[in-house]
Each structure stands twice: as structure tokens, then as C-alpha cells.
């Protein structure tokens, strides 16, 4: 009897140790939505959009870190190719995978990756690498200076982005003001929806208004992107 109780107690202890807690189950459900979640597609779409927005920033940061790490590896006596491999291996996993997948020698193929948004610094890295290989010189010092220049450029971009936050918010607010105007007109009994959707002049006003609204949003975004781009 005592042996049976001991076995049961041991099994219960093992089950409690190996079974996730209710809090872990709740957290898992929050992080990973169930397959029948009606908002799963919207969540996935939002995640994809967020990934696309953050990808250029991740590339810019990784290029700066790559130049810094390569300069340190070269100062330690490694060859440029080995320094590149060692430096790329410790970057962001997605960036590291793409950098390590390019054929050798890397300078001949970095220009292809430089076409990605945020990875423009790879073109400068490749140019410095070629000049260092052809004419000699201290490539570590050149890459250290390149990392400093890219870091200063990124700091300027971040500063401009912060200063543009106000104008961007104002543009979005102005874009939704027509909806507020429609709501106020409907509250006053003007019946704007039947006029806009049921009459020819209303349809013309609706189409022209929406076109100007979207044009304003596009133009504001275009000006902001040009202001953030280095000159």
C-alpha cells in the first residue's frame, strides 16, 4: 500500500513538473491564435505590414554593426573574407542569413543586396573593400570611418523622423475630418449620405473629395520620405 502511494505521488509530481501551468496555456493562446480565429488573417496581415515597415531600419542597423565588427576582426589580424563571415554571423538572424548566403567573394555580390531598402550602406562597404584589396591600406580604419558616417546619417534620419511625427499626425487628422463633417451634417438632419450616393452632383463631389483626400495623404507621405532621405 505504501509503495503504491509512493508511486502515485511520484507520478503526480512528474505530471505537475512536465505539464505547463494554466498561465502558460493562456499566454500561448494569446501569442498563437487558434486556427479558427476569425481575425487570424488580419493578425497575419498586420504582422506582415509591421515586418515590412521595420525591415529597412533593421538593415540599416545591421550594416552599421557589420562595419564595426569587420573593423574589429580586421584589427585582430583576420582576412577580409573571414572578418566578413565572423561579423555577419552575429547580426540579426534574417540579415545574417542573407549575408552568409551570398557567393564568394562578397564584394562582387553585396551590390545586389544593397538594392534592398535600408541596405544601401552595403554598396559603400563593397567599394571600400575593393579599394582596400586593390590599392592596399588599412581597411579596418576605412570601415571604422564608414561605420561612423552611417551612424551619423542614421541619427540624422531618426531626428528628422521625430520632427515629422507632428505633420504626419496632422495630415491623418485632416484626412478623417470629412467623416466628422458627414456625421455632423447627418446629426443636423441634412441627409448627406443620400445626396452623395444617390445624386449625380453628390457622386461627383464624393469622387473628387476622396481623390483629393488620398492625393493629400500620398503627397504628405512623399514629402516626409524625401525629407528623411539623406542628401
List the helices and strands and how they pair.
Layout: H1 2-18, H2 22-31, H3 40-75, H4 80-88, H5 93-101, H6 110-113, H7 121-135, H8 139-163, H9 165-187, H10 192-198, H11 200-228
Could you explain the architecture of this structure?
The chain contains eleven helices and no strands. It is mostly helical and 231 residues long. It folds into two domains: 44-157; 164-228. Helix 3 packs antiparallel against helix 4 (80-88), helix 7 (121-135) packs antiparallel against helix 8 (139-163) and helix 10 (192-198) packs across helix 11 (200-228).
How would you summarize what this structure contains?
The protein has 231 residues and is mostly helical.
Order of helices and strands: HHHHHHHHHHH
Task: Give the end-to-end Cα distance, rounded to a whole number of Å.
Answer: 84 Å
Biggest β-sheet description: none
In percent terms, what proportion of residues is strand? under 5%
Task: Indicate the mean pLDDT.
Answer: 79
Low-confidence stretches: 1-27
| Oligomeric assembly | single chain
Number of strands: 0
The Rg value, from CA coordinates, equals 28 Å
Task: State the shape.
Answer: elongated
Report the helical percentage.
over 70%
Structural class: mainly alpha
Task: Tell me the domain tally.
Answer: 2
Figure out the total of helices. Answer: 11
What key attributes describe this structure?
231 residues; single chain
Amino acid at each position: 500500500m505504501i509503495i503504491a502511494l509512493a508511486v502515485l505521488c511520484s507520478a503526480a509530481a512528474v505530471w505537475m513538473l512536465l505539464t505547463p501551468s494554466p498561465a502558460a496555456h493562456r499566454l500561448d493562446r494569446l501569442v498563437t491564435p487558434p486556427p479558427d480565429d476569425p481575425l487570424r488573417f488580419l493578425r497575419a496581415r498586420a504582422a506582415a505590414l509591421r515586418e515590412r515597415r521595420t525591415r529597412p531600419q533593421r538593415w540599416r542597423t545591421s550594416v552599421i554593426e557589420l562595419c564595426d565588427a569587420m573593423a574589429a576582426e580586421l584589427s585582430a589580424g583576420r582576412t577580409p573574407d573571414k572578418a566578413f563571415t565572423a561579423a555577419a554571423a552575429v547580426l540579426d538572424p534574417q540579415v545574417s542569413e542573407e549575408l552568409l548566403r551570398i557567393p564568394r567573394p562578397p564584394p562582387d555580390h553585396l551590390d545586389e543586396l544593397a538594392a534592398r531598402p535600408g541596405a544601401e550602406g552595403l554598396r559603400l562597404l563593397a567599394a571600400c573593400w575593393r579599394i582596400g584589396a586593390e590599392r592596399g591600406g588599412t581597411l579596418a580604419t576605412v570601415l571604422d570611418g564608414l561605420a561612423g558616417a552611417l551612424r551619423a546619417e542614421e541619427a540624422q534620419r531618426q531626428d528628422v523622423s521625430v520632427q515629422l511625427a507632428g505633420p504626419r499626425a496632422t495630415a491623418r487628422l485632416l484626412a478623417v475630418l470629412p467623416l466628422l463633417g458627414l456625421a455632423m451634417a447627418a446629426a443636423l438632419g441634412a441627409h448627406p449620405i443620400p445626396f452623395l450616393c444617390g445624386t449625380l452632383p453628390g457622386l461627383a463631389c464624393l469622387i473628387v473629395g476622396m481623390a483629393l483626400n488620398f492625393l493629400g495623404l500620398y503627397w504628405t507621405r512623399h514629402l516626409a520620405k524625401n525629407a528623411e532621405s539623406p542628401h
